[in-house]
Amino acid sequence: MLRKRIIFTLIYENGFFNQSRNFRLQKVGNLRWLEKNYKFQKIAFSLDELIVLNASKEDKNMKEFASTLSSLVDDVFIPIAAGGGIRTVDDAKLLFDNGADKIVLNTALYNNKSLVRKLVLQYGSQSIVASIDYKTIGESNKVYIEDGTIELDIELDEYIKYVQTLEVGEIYLNSIDQDGTGFGYDIETIIHVSKNLKIPLIIVGGAGNEKHLSSGLEMEFVNAVATANLFNFIGDGLPKARKNIIDREINIATWKSQN
């Protein structure tokens, strides 16, 4: 059985890292601030993976983002996934060349299926993470692309089925409604869509404490939980959360330093 994972997501916009609430960004600090407050070299044992997303609106500036990624991952020995604005094979290559172990695709899943297939063929399914953003509107779950600005005329259930036909490695499922609230994951929707899942699932949106992470990991069909909450997990928040999760005997990796 695959071990479950704890993932931290960093949201990047035009040289700064941000807090996000319902996809509205609030600037927090640049790379220097991040290195001062989050020494990933030291807290890597609390994480299984790091995801870095480029949420810049007007100009994604992939070269600048790749340069930031390269500096960020220096001496960080956990897998790194990066994405946001990947529109060509060269964009993906740039991120791989600058430290990414996986790439994250969102908009391209919908409007550039041929690119997705090229990337799967070139780098392998295990290197491609499909990011799906959704909102609950009435009794429907609607999918959004382009940083949550464009609603698709397709239900979440059907979109998940479609995305899996692209042979991606896993799905990163993000609730825009729960994003940044700290109120916990959208458990009801996660359970609902699980019947259509044939590949690993990462859930994100709403985690504000260790109990939220545990509740996600305890669901049989959830392979990983992610949080982008910089402030709730600053300092020793992540080490404590991981220790408590290990104490609950959830199937997650342990190291000697944690025993």
Distinctive features:
TIM Barrel; 12 strands; 32% helix; 8-stranded parallel barrel; 10 helices; alpha/beta
Task: Please describe the topology of this protein.
Blueprint (H helix, E strand, L loop, with lengths): L4 E9 L2 E6 L2 E6 L1 H7 L2 H4 L5 E6 L7 H11 L7 E4 L5 H9 L4 E4 L1 H5 L1 H11 L4 E10 L2 E6 L4 E6 H9 L5 E6 L11 H7 L7 E4 L5 H8 L6 E4 L9 H11 L12
Helix pairs in contact: 3-4, 9-10
Describe the structure.
By secondary structure, this protein is of the alpha/beta class. The chain has a single domain (5-258), classed as TIM Barrel. 32% of the residues lie in helices and 27% in strands. The chain contains ten helices and twelve strands. It has helices at 31-37, 40-43, 62-72, 89-97, 107-111, 113-123, 156-164, 187-193, 210-217, 237-247, and strands at 5-13, 16-21, 24-29, 49-54, 80-83, 102-105, 128-137, 140-145, 150-155, 170-175, 201-204, 224-227. It has an eight-stranded parallel barrel, surrounded by four helices. Strand 4, helix 3 (62-72) and strand 5 (80-83) form a beta-alpha-beta unit. Helix 3 (62-72) packs parallel to helix 4 (89-97) and helix 9 crosses helix 10. The longest helix is centred in the N-terminal third of the chain and has 11 residues, at 62-72. The protein is globular, with a radius of gyration of 17 Å. The two termini are 21 Å apart. The relative contact order is 0.15.
